[in-house]
Design goal:
Elements: E1 2-4, H1 5-12, H2 16-24, E2 31-32, E3 38-41, H3 42-54, E4 72-76, H4 82-90, E5 93-99, H5 102-111, E6 118-120, E7 137-140, H6 163-174, E8 178-184, H7 194-206, E9 208-216, E10 227-235, H8 254-257, H9 271-277, H10 291-298, H11 346-352, H12 365-374, H13 378-409
Parallel strand pairs: 4-5, 4-7, 5-6, 7-8
Antiparallel strand pairs: 1-3, 2-3, 8-10, 9-10
Helix pairs in contact: 4-13, 6-7
């Protein structure tokens, strides 16, 4: 049953502001009605209340299936391997990983089994045609670049000069059963939605049906509030249902994620910044500082409009982390440890992105932070991979049933 925010307030004897704060913190989900009112699932509301009263944490673990599927994948822009590892954990085998950054390639080579086909090359120079008809899935977390809309078709040719085009070219050269694109949520509104429309039209022109959805990692076993836009394209000749991960009715707290986290290297704060951040309480930010310290720390930003909620921000033990960035101590997006006055370490960063503790990152410390911050969370990728397997299993089941019917008819 769905409840309005006023009904939830009355049933739980809590203020409306408290419920709004729960939603803002990512502790509870709300759907919007036709009239744009917040609506809450009553089972989820009571489950959260029970969890908060009991202070019990959902266990953190890197998800992995014991079963291996027969399906294969090619991944472009593989980075430090977050998506690839999630797919592998779901049971999908990679026949090619492509990445241009040398540190990312070193990370992939160190962690994936010897003999894994990792191509250290600019994607523009890779010919994918040898894999035509030999791969089930092509996946890419392509960087979003500006598009030109001079053309009228808004299809495949209009994406030339962008890295999305290289993803589309790989799809065209290999014609997999399913193609998966991943990007930031902001792509939905980029250039009033025309960028995404161009991408969708390009995939349709190649011969694919397309659907997309924003997934919230904090409801998919990731201890982090991170939203990603997932685009799934199915080849036109295949009767496959679109399946996206179903959000869970729980979140994983930072406390659960960092329990027994291995010690590792990490950045440190300059003396004065450490003194200032030591005044910020758990879950607090710059507004919790004395007014004179606010002005000192914020400088010109103090007088600017906007929430600026990422500045002087200390994380909370009892919530998922805020979205990790490429560096743990950027002034506009501070991610201070909940109880110690320091940035998160490399291994803490990796835990929050749901990498296993034995996944070793290569390169300098700043490069490692960047690799982890840019990655798609492993557990989020695992859930996507499980959906792809379910989709392809549906196809195989239909093909098997069709063959059986043909044999029976004979």
């Amino acid at each position: 049953m769905w409840l309005s925010i006023h009904e939830v307030s009355k049933k739980l004897n809590l203020s409306i502001d408290t419920i709004r704060r729960w939603e803002k913190k990512g502790l509870i989900k709300a759907e919007r009605s036709d009239k744009n009112h917040r609506m809450f699932n009553d089972d989820e509301v009571f489950a959260l209340l029970d969890k908060l009263n009991n202070k019990s944490d959902e266990e953190f673990k890197v998800l992995e299936s014991k079963l291996k599927s027969p399906y294969t994948a090619i991944e472009l822009f593989a980075g430090a391997g977050g998506t690839a590892l999630g797919f592998e954990n779901a049971g999908i085998r990679h026949i090619l990983l492509n990445e241009i950054d040398k540190d990312c390639v070193a990370t992939l080579q160190h962690n994936f089994p010897k003999g894994t086909n990792i191509i250290h090359e600019d994607v523009h120079n890779v010919d994918f045609s040898p894999w035509k008809g030999k791969v089930d899935i092509v996946q890419a977390g392509f960087p979003c670049q500006a598009f030109s809309y001079a053309g009228k078709s808004m299809g495949f040719e209009d994406t030339r000069g962008t890295l999305f085009f290289e993803f589309a070219r790989c799809v065209k050269e290999t014609m997999p059963k399913i193609a998966v694109g991943e990007n930031v949520k902001g792509l939905l509104k980029h250039d009033n939605g025309r960028t995404l429309k161009t991408m969708v039209n390009a995939l349709k022109e190649i011969g694919y049906n397309v659907q997309y959805k924003v997934l919230r990692a904090q409801y998919l076993d990731v201890p982090q509030k991170r939203e990603r836009l997932i685009i799934i394209a199915i080849r036109n000749d295949l009767n496959i249902p679109f399946i996206f991960p179903t959000e869970k009715n729980y979140t994983v707290s930072l406390r659960a994620a960092l329990k027994d986290c291995p010690k590792s290297e990490g950045q440190s704060y300059p003396k004065r910044k450490a003194e200032i951040l030591s005044l910020v309480p758990e879950g607090g930010y710059w507004r919790d500082l004395p007014i004179d310290v606010q002005k000192e720390y914020m400088k010109g930003s103090f007088h600017l409009s906007g929430g600026k909620t990422g500045m002087a921000r200390r994380l909370s033990w009892d919530e998922p982390s805020l979205t990790l960035t490429c560096a743990p101590a950027q002034k506009q997006t501070e991610r201070c440890h909940p109880s110690e006055t320091r940035p998160l370490t490399i291994r803490e960063y990796a835990r929050i992105q749901s990498f296993p503790d034995n996944w070793k990152f290569q390169g300098t410390m700043s490069s490692q932070y960047k690799q982890i911050g840019n990655a798609v969370p492993v557990n989020l990728s695992y859930h996507i991979g499980c959906c792809l397997i379910e989709m392809l299993d549906c196809l195989n089941e239909k093909m098997t049933n069709g063959l059986q019917l043909e044999m029976a008819a004979e």
